[in-house]
Amino acid sequence: MAVHDFRSQRLFLNADLFQGADITADRNQANYLLNVLRMGEGDRLFVFNGRQGEWQALIHPTGRKSCRLIMEMQTRSQPVPADLTYCFAPLKQARLDYMVQKATEMGVGRMVPVITHYTQVRKLNGERLRANIIEAAEQCGILNIPDLDAPVGLEKLPERLGDRISLFFCDEAQSDACSRIENKPANGLAVLVGPEGGFSNEERALIHSWSNVTILGLGPRILRADTAAVAALTLVQSKFGDWYR
Ligand code: SAH
After folding, report:
1. Is residue 198 within 6 Å of ligand 1 at its C-beta?
2. How far, rounded to the nearest angstrom, does the alpha carbon of residue 70 sit from its chain's CA centroid?
3. Are 96 and 121 within 8 A, CB to CB?
4. In what order do the strands lie in the sheet containing 44-48?
5. With a 6 A CB cut-off, is 219 part of the ligand 1 pocket?
6. 93-105 and 126-140 helices cross at what angle (nearest 10)?
7. Which residues lie below 8 Å from residue 40, measured CB to CB, with a gap of 6+?
8. Residue 69 forms beta bridges with which residues?
9. From CA 194, how far away is CA 184, in angstroms rounded?
10. Degrees to nearest 5, angle at CA 90 with 169 and 11
């Protein structure tokens, strides 16, 4: 990972990737490579599909807005996805885009939109979220594309996560609770961040009634939800996740 060339262009493709695979880029991707990046015959880039690692590909233009990509060699194998789920109340557009990009960069394996009392956005554009996830992965050299669940009501969250998962509950009302996360939970991890309006007291009581819940405090200031996402995932990744060796 450390010796990887992060300056090179990376592109997500849906197609299967293998030695010699000859893939026609879609029109938008071809236009981007040929006319925005001004790449041409013989140029190389990295491609990935979230399943078969990363490949060095050779560009072969076939028109002004069309090209083929030929897989030359695998440069990284597909890593095991992180057992880290990010549960969040959907926010309005720009902040939501930011939040899913950052969660992807922070290495989550799965994202679960959770509808709470004060959630302002209840209808999600899954395609847009996925495009944001892919863009972040392309930029940061992430080979695992996090799964994006359909939204779930807060009361159904434990069922959705299953009983194998330890939930870190970011509770703005108990922001001094940081010291409580000392022992690494044995099972998969999830982080829950609320909407801009925070959690209601009934929701707080409900979450505390679930098993495997740990309060995660994020300091003496109230953070906006998108900031809370980065702060919480940093804490969890650095203490228990793949930053922790
Ligand atoms: N409107 C609420 C704040 C909501 S902040 C209020 O004024 O109290 C949005 C979400 O970010 C919260 O639901 C919580 O999950 C998380 N969050 C923000 N600051 C936090 C903190 N200091 N400790 C723990 N979680 C926090």
Report:
1. yes
2. 28
3. yes
4. 10-12, 44-48, 54-63, 66-76, 22-24
5. yes
6. 40
7. 34, 59, 61
8. 23, 59
9. 23
10. 105
Which two structure tokens, joined as six digits, stand for 133? 């996830």
Measured CA to CA in angstroms, residue 54 lies from 81, 141, 147 at distances of 14, 9, 18
81, 175 contact by CB (below 8 A): no
In the DSSP assignment, the letter for residue 178 is G
CA of 185 to the centre of ligand 1 (A): 23
Task: Determine if ligand 1 sits within 6 Å of the CB of residue 114.
Answer: no
Rounded Cα gap, residues 115 and 132, in angstroms? 20
Burial (CB count <10 Å: 0-12, 13-18, 19+), residue 156: exposed
| Tens-digit pLDDT string for the chain (245 aa) | 434 565 689 999 999 999 999 999 999 999 999 999 999 999 999 999 999 999 999 999 999 999 999 999 999 999 999 999 999 999 999 999 999 999 999 999 999 999 999 999 989 999 999 999 999 999 999 999 999 999 999 999 999 999 888 999 999 998 877 656 667 776 899 999 999 999 999 999 999 999 889 999 999 999 999 999 999 999 999 988 888 76
Q: State if residue 175 touches ligand 1 by the CB under 6 angstroms criterion.
A: yes
Q: What is the value of pTM for the model shown?
A: 0.93
